[in-house]
Amino acid sequence: QSVLTQPPSASGTPGQRVTISCSGSSSNIESNYVYWYQQLPGTAPKLLIYRNNQRPSGVPDRFSGSKSGTSASLAISGLRSEDEADYYCAAWDDSLRGGVFGGGTKLTVL
Amino acid sequence: EVQLLESGGGLVQPGGSLRLSCAASGFTFTSYAVSWVRQAPGKGLQWVSGISGSGVNTYYADSVKGRFTISRDNSKNTLYLQMNSLRAEDTAIYYCAKIPMTTVTTYLDYWGQGTLVTVSS
């Protein structure tokens, strides 16, 4: 089991808005930044959101992140077929003194 | 252009050893921390280890502590992962990733393409 909990799957139709949750604890999400990664099939992961809600250059503003207490969320608006991928949340864990990832959410665009 | 190129993966027997390398270019290597992240076949990402820009501070996942050693040679712009006492559950693609600061976090802004490690008899 992963330290951070994500739903294994999510889906939506083109143009819809979908959200992916990430649940943790006081030692990780509540006290540290959350990061989100997108992994397209057969490729290396790519940074999607950093420091809870910041987008790297080149990431469309359709992607947004938020954090509240021990949970975080990734929202994707105006869903497109190319958004079909696996999404992972990550944070530092002060108790483990190491990084932790969520189990990943497979997003399907119907 | 930032590039990270992993090498050293392959097939190894249980109990064996392997050393992975990650050659970095396109940035001032010594100024940034770096990490190893792995992904077992068909599974999710797992953080493995991280090392600060100076190399002084190192961190490990509990699952590899005492078996894996992370190190870096800043004169060669290269990151290493020495893996000993390998187990079947260490089978994975191993990615190296750059952190845009000197301290270790899960803020991984550039990733390599990965190298496959298979532990099997």
Rg of chain B is: 13 Å
Shape of chain B: globular
Helix content of chain A: under 10%
What is the residue-averaged pLDDT of chain A?
Answer: 97
Would you mind describing this structure in some detail?
The complex is a heterodimer of chains A (110) and B (121). Chain A starts with 8 loop residues before the first strand and ends with a strand. Chain A has strands at residues 9-12, 18-23, 34-39, 46-49, 63-68, 71-76, 85-93, 98-101, 105-109. The relative contact order of chain A is 0.33. In chain A, the strands form two sheets. In chain A, strands 1, 3, 4, 7, 8 and 9 form a six-stranded mixed sheet that branches. Chain A has 110 residues and is mainly β. Chain A is built from no helices and nine strands. Chain B is mainly beta and 121 residues long. Chain B contains no helices and eleven strands. In chain B, the strands form two sheets. In chain B, strands 2, 4, 5, 6, 9, 10 and 11 form a seven-stranded mixed sheet that branches. A four-stranded antiparallel sheet of chain B has the order 1-3-8-7, with no helix packed on it. In chain B, a hairpin with a 6-residue loop joins strand 5 (45-51) and strand 6 (58-60). The termini of chain B are far apart. Chains A and B meet through strand 3, strand 7 and strand 8 of A and strand 5 and strand 10 of B.
